[in-house]
Give the backbone structure.
Amino acid sequence: MCSISWAQTAGAAAGSDKSLKPVVVVEKADTLAGKDSLRATETSIGKGKQALRDIPQSLTVVTEKLIDDRNLDTLKEALHSTAGISFLAAEGGEEDIRLRGFSLAATGDIFLDGMRDPAFYERDTFNNDRIELLRGSASMLFGRGSTGGAVNQISKQARAMDEHSVDITLGNHNYKRAVGDFNIKTGEDAGLRINAMVNKADNNGSGSSIDKKGLALNYRLGIGTSDEFGIGLYYLDNQNGMNYGLPWILAKGAPANETGLMTNLDPSAYYGMASDRNAGGAQVATLSHTHRFLDGGELKTSLRTGKYDRDQRASTIRRQPTNAENKTSCAAAFVSGTSGARQTAMFNTVSDNTVLCRGTNNKIQDMNTTYLQSDYSKKFEAMGVKHELLVGIDAANEKFNNYNAVANPALVKANTKVGTPNDGASVDESKRVLSVARSFDAKAAGLYVQDLVQVAPHWKVLGGLRLDSFKGKYTAATATATAAAYNERSDTLLSKRLGVLYQPSATTSFHASYGTSFNTSGDTYQYDNQTANTKPEGSVNYEIGAKIDSADKRFTTRLALFYAVKNNERNRDPDSAATQNLLSGKRHSAGFELDVTGKLTKDWDVYGSYAFTPIAKIDIGAPGSVAGVAEGAGTRSSLTPKHSGTVWTTYQITPQFRVGGGLNFRSEQTPNRNPGWSAPSFVTADVMAEYSFDRYSIKANVSNVTNKLYADALYTGHYIPGAGRIYQVTASVKF
């Protein structure tokens, strides 16, 4: 295999040539990192390519190899292969991720190639080269949000070579998936890459059907020269089903602070309407230009426009209200109460004849975005020390609309029973009339500077500052007139980042770091009369850690101790006459993290990620909250298990035959707002076997081998079950 490097001619060095001339060098491919490895050595999450050992902060990388080995088709599945991550089963189904006891705000903390990627669609991994999870406060790099961390998806890029692959996967639940990756050399320094995907399944083992397709095009011209141009187009269309989840019940013989899962049903049992759906997708276009200066500096500018939409029609599954409760809506829970009062139903009181009602939770939204980002980086020496300078600006405009969907007369959803899942009942969703309920126009701009300075032979110091401006204009239709309620707010914030690196050898790097983050009141694209007058929240993250490579640099161990605190959490003022929220809350978390990746031997690969978070505490709760429940003072932060992680390992038995297996685990955790009970802990196991010959391979995967019943995403009134046992076989060809 050949790789391409680029060298400067003598004439260019003397200034006689303004471009860098390509030199093709044939060399042995690097098999220690990249597409064919579970281990990564470089990252671009810091706004430029950096060695992982030079990042004074915890970073977990899910490589393309791990994605392929474990059949991780979605971003959510990929994040399950990292430690410390949990998921909220949110009202609208957003990918609201929890990390280190804090929410990765759905609208702010997921990025695509370093630029914000709104949480308006279920992301697929078909065009991902890798996924990077930066842990801890990171507003200096990314602006608003980034309290618990940031997720960066790296897209596949065109290369100046011909290389193609096709993967076909079949599985139970009528699962069918085809992915094509075609890289075409179009010139000496140009290439076109086409990635395509189509995926269908009845319910994929968790009640939600799959029907999606995607296409990604990337063209690069001047690869490796002084001026490189790129254009990327991305299209994803989801017409998936929607499983809103199952209600909690009290397990037989369980203590008062514990619950069980709904029943011992197969998690593919579905109680929603056949007409429920989670449709939507993304259409994204990106233009980029990289100029490489003769002095080693590099200026990269990217312009992106995106259109996102979501049409989500969900059924809330609850207990049928009794006549005595006099409830007309489907809102009765099996287990409820945030102040000590509880309604309970035991496992032995729930039978096949227990009636379930179907409520309605719709979320119909669209969003148009424009992002501009320009970064200048340079390595140089000044005043006797080495510098790695990064200076950048970015700007954003996001226009959001949320729609009401009303039917007149109201659509009535039929009840069902525990013993009759998948009954096929539906309603005519086309009879709902859409109208704009609220809109939000956000404008943001940031200016940042960072320098990594080699202050001594083994010591580096990192310092960074960022100034952000955020302005939001919010309009909401009133319930009583055609007039609109209008609120707007502007904020200017300074974010800081400081790190110290001690690198006594080429295989060891120790660090200590400090970073801040902020969350504006407009992060969820809405203001009311109180939030429009509320200043941003602020958080701080402290960390000490190490990255240690084996002597042959085939294996890396990452360790970290962290302490994170939010000092001014927003709370609703119980005074109905209040003009703003109270920044009166406080919470903190502390723990230990461990990642191991790489080769123990030339044939044995290992990937592991573990987080121990013994402390995740609400120090000051909302006014009127009760200690121990409802996020009251002294309560453990919700959706924060003490133990979480994953391990995956493969072994090349013969040149053709490879086997693998792994575990995913989470200890018990409470749903959001901590209603006073915990979801049970769980461990699931996965196995894989692959046989390769010539350009072909066939791979078999079994996920959740024991068919473990567990709660994957949690909410106060319900949980979304994790997928049951999944069988899949993938045939691949490379040419």
In short: The first helix runs from residue 10 to 13. The CA atoms of residues 536 and 567 lie 11 Å apart. The helical segments are 10-13, 64-69, 75-80, 139-142.
